[in-house]
Amino acid sequence: MRDTHVVLKLILRPIGLSLIGAALLGQTLTVAAQVVVPGTPNPVLTKTMTPSRPKIGEPARITITATNAGPVNAENVVITDPLPDNIALGSVTTSQGSIQIEHHIITVYVGTLAAGQTVTVINDVVVIREFASNTPWTNCTGLTYRDGVARLACFPYGPAYQPVSVTTPPSFLPEAGTGTSLGWMGWLVAGIICLLIAHRLRRPRSMG
Description:
Immunoglobulin-like, 4-stranded antiparallel β-sheet, 2 helices, 5-stranded antiparallel β-sheet, flat, 2 domains
């Protein structure tokens, strides 16, 4: 038993340190990548709802806009908008591209977004119950484009009008995006847990 504790402690400690290091490095690279490089596309994503806090049974309109604020075209632009399961979708329109709806996720394949161009996606919805069970990422819309960092726009409130905290792009983004299902925050938490377990694996007291 004593040897097992020692071995586990020796294994968990470097794993924990490695996970924390990977998390911090990943966050640093993400922040660096979000700095717009001159001469590259710069999609700016926004999302609003009118009214901002609809009541049950009240129609509402979600407006999503993506504007290329960069000097060159953004290619392979995809907008992904998952709806909370307490919202019923009436219709979807887009000013450019094709629409696909599957598993309550709206995907708009925009294609090329020219410099200075704006594409608008409008979702007409109805709130069918107060609470949703698939949050918080269903309050967020994502945008990906070729060789670029994923953009994210989220409602400030969840389905029960509680603040929504966003730390990493959600896992619903297309493969072209940079989001991962775990994210740097997940790696950080996992590393801390490993270190805590290693710390608690103290050598058992000898009998007698």
